[in-house]
Design goal:
It contains 7 helices and 21 strands.
């Protein structure tokens, strides 16, 4: 019988959340057949089976947060003649989405070895994953009162989280996008010299059915071309700044699972209609939790349209290594004096936070001026 543990998914991502199982105990699986979907770093990854055979036992449920090396499946392997012949060239390794190699992990479970032929669990020894012990200490959970769901009752991280929920009613363990947001926002506040500049764009020339998101994207593209200093990455360790000629705009998307920021690459190559189609398709994928890691990478500047929900001005948070984020508030109506007459005008409030280590105040102000001028133009 073979044991399959969660492989290293790459990029130093130690934790994953189980989104969906595609197999159950008793099912027959083929080599590289997708057995479950997990989410890590706000991206979903399909995990294939490293063996062919019959599922004996499955560990973990949808919503559980698991670590690298956590036991996922026990499989009664089906050995074929081809497998025996190719055994010298193919070791017991798994692949993630067909490319990322699975490295064997030594799973230390306090003097208990999963899969050992002579397993003996002493009655006076509490068996728990080391990570579960550390987590229990942090959450104040007594492991003596926790029932383990692992093999032969081994206590896993998931068991500790469940015990914490019972100990402190209303306590919610952050998962997926919300969990990633914690570290991302903390890093920004620690490492970015953030300054926010605000302005207003008058929308007198807009059509009644104007696509706000598309207009904002196109305006950011134009502002980036005029003042490229805001379309950049900054590395404080090497004291280097990379100013990009390509505009890749990250669009902040709110969902019930948390905040996602998919990236519209080569935004300057899109039309208004093309932007809308991309947004609709991407948002649908986020709602279904079907968004790949590559769709969340390489943004050079970010847009957050928080005004679609509420809010006039804000202080958006820059995500390193980017140096700027543009925020659009709720469109409001103001009275403006025109020829000594009060005229109602629709106003779009704008807020931009920039990293003052990489951009001067003048560059930020010129960028905002270019952004406003573009937004105030009539539709094409």
């Amino acid at each position: 019988m073979k044991s399959f543990t969660l492989p290293d998914l790459g990029e130093g991502l130690a934790e994953s959340e189980i989104i969906e199982w595609h197999v159950d105990a008793g099912d027959t699986v083929e080599l590289d057949q997708v057995v479950l979907t997990v989410e890590t770093a706000k991206a979903t990854v399909e995990v294939p089976s490293p063996y062919r055979g019959t599922i004996i036992r499955r560990f973990g449920n949808a919503g559980d947060v698991i670590s690298i090396g956590s036991l996922l499946l026990e499989i009664e392997e089906k050995v074929t003649t081809d497998h025996v012949q190719n055994n010298t060239s193919r070791t017991d390794t798994a692949t993630v989405v067909g490319t990322v190699s699975h490295h064997d992990h030594d799973v230390n479970i306090d003097e208990y070895w999963v899969g050992h032929s002579q397993q003996v669990k002493p009655t006076d020894t509490l068996t728990a994953m080391p990570s579960a012990r550390l987590l229990a200490q942090k959450l104040g959970v007594d492991l003596n009162n926790v029932s383990g769901s692992g093999p032969s009752g081994v206590i896993l991280d998931t068991d500790v989280y469940n015990a914490c929920d019972k100990l402190l009613p209303g306590t919610e363990v952050l998962k997926g996008a919300r969990r990633t947001m914690v570290s991302t926002m903390a890093e920004s506040h620690l490492n970015v010299a953030a300054v926010t500049i605000t302005e207003e764009a008058m929308l007198e020339r807009w059509n009644p059915d104007e696509d706000i998101t598309s207009r904002l994207v196109l305006a950011i593209v134009e502002a980036c071309h005029q003042v490229p200093a805001l379309n950049a990455w900054f590395d404080a360790e090497t004291m280097t700044r990379c100013v990009h000629s390509t505009v890749n705009i990250g669009l902040a998307v709110d969902s019930r699972h948390g905040l996602y920021v998919p990236v519209l690459r080569h935004a300057d190559e899109y039309s208004t209609r093309g932007i809308r189609q991309w947004v609709d398709k991407t948002v649908a994928g986020i709602k279904e939790r079907k968004i790949g890691r590559e769709q969340l990478q390489h943004a050079t500047i970010t847009l957050t349209n928080f005004g679609a929900i509420a809010g006039i001005f804000a202080t958006p948070v820059v995500t390193p290594p980017q140096v700027a984020i543009v925020g659009a508030g709720r469109i409001i109506e103001k009275l403006m004096l025109r020829d000594n007459k009060a005229v109602p005008v629709k106003i779009l409030p704008l807020s931009m936070t920039f990293d003052h280590r990489a951009c001067t105040g003048g560059e930020a102000a010129r960028f905002m001026k270019a952004l406003v001028n573009q937004l105030q133009q009539a539709s094409n």
